[in-house]
TrEMBL record:
Belongs to the class I-like SAM-binding methyltransferase superfamily. Keywords: S-adenosyl-L-methionine, Transferase. Pathway: Secondary metabolite biosynthesis. GO terms for molecular function: transferase activity. PANTHER family: METHYLTRANSFERASE AUSD. This is Methyltransferase domain-containing protein. InterPro entries: Meroterpenoid_MTases, SAM-dependent_MTases_sf.
Length: 317
């Protein structure tokens, strides 16, 4: 999910940041859909498609150089997705965003992937645009995994990119909250192409991307999610968890559609990860080996909400 929503047409200003982020409860992973099913809010408006130059180049190279065909394919996928899961995420073409590549830590992640023994997971991949961009930028596809709870979104990604039989990234469906929290080391030997469940990745990942994810939950659930990511992480020097989400200058709850949702400040975000690492590896490890970086972007004005985005990374030194 992209960190900037500035391209939205003025007529949709009332689509608040809360609405834009909340759809990930339905679209990127985590909550049984009967708990939150957004209603159709607007008829689709093709004029809202306004790709950045970088995204346009990427899509032209990976989908088609024919602009008319590219637009047709985008609109077809959008229509099909919106019929099944009507939400602002689909309405505003967010499934095309390459937000992972816009994070400050991305060059470091990419360099490590190109030159080292790494394994990256995009948790809540939706249609898989971010991981395809990662491969496009040079990260070895054999070292990338992408997970969502919904196979239909993965299939729509294949339809958009026309690569159902050729995409080198391994996609699978699984629920992170079904992963048991445990911090024992697991012997190596994982075949990424055969992964079918997140639990199989215990103590295996060097890079985890969790975009627009943590701010969907209250504090206890955020801590629970962090511990499960640490369960999957290879907790050695160089490993990184990173993402982007709604943030506040002072930690506090924000409006959600059906639940309390906590937005972190840079300070509270670092504190949460310190607590999680202390539970996983001990206080000395948390104090001396973990480096958390979190910065707030400038305000985004969407009419109903003026807010900031928290760009963050957690590295083991």
């Amino acid at each position: 999910m992209a960190s900037s929503l500035s391209y939205l047409h003025p007529s949709t200003q009332y689509l608040s940041m809360t609405m834009m982020m909340s759809v990930h409860l339905e679209h990127r992973i985590l909550v049984p859909e009967e708990k939150l099913t957004p209603k159709p809010i607007l008829r689709l408006d093709p004029s809202l498609l306004n790709l950045s130059q970088k995204t346009r180049i990427f899509l032209c190279d990976e989908v088609t150089q024919d602009n008319a065909e590219l637009r047709r394919r985008i609109f077809d996928v959008q229509n099909e997705a919106y019929e099944k899961h009507p939400s602002p995420y689909i309405y505003a073409f967010k499934f095309l965003a390459t937000t992972m590549s816009e994070t400050p830590i991305y060059p470091t992640v990419l360099e490590a992937g190109v030159s080292g023994d790494t394994l990256l997971l995009d948790l809540g991949c939706c249609m898989g645009t971010d991981v395809r961009k990662l491969v496009y930028d040079g990260y070895p596809a054999s070292n990338i995994l992408a997970c969502d709870t919904r196979q239909d979104f993965i299939d729509l990604g294949y339809k958009l990119f026309g690569d159902a039989n050729t995409c080198p990234v391994h996609f699978f469906t699984s629920d992170i909250f079904e992963v048991p929290v445990q911090f024992d080391e697991v012997p190596p030997g994982l075949l990424t192409s055969e992964v079918a469940d997140l639990e199989e990745l215990t103590d295996s990942l060097t890079h985890i991307y969790a975009g627009a994810l943590f701010d969907l939950f209250d504090q206890p659930m955020q801590k629970s999610l962090a511990l499960r990511l640490l369960t999957l992480l290879r907790r050695k020097k160089g490993s990184i968890i990173f993402g982007v989400q709604r943030g506040l200058s002072e930690e506090g709850y924000v409006d959600g559609l059906s639940r309390d949702r906590n937005a972190h400040s840079p300070k509270s975000w670092a504190s949460m990860w310190k607590e999680a690492f202390a539970e996983a590896e001990g206080e000395e490890f948390a104090d001396t080996r973990v480096f958390t970086e979190a910065t707030l972007s400038g305000a985004s004005d969407l009419g109903m909400y003026k807010g900031q985005m928290l760009h963050w990374s957690v590295r083991i030194m």
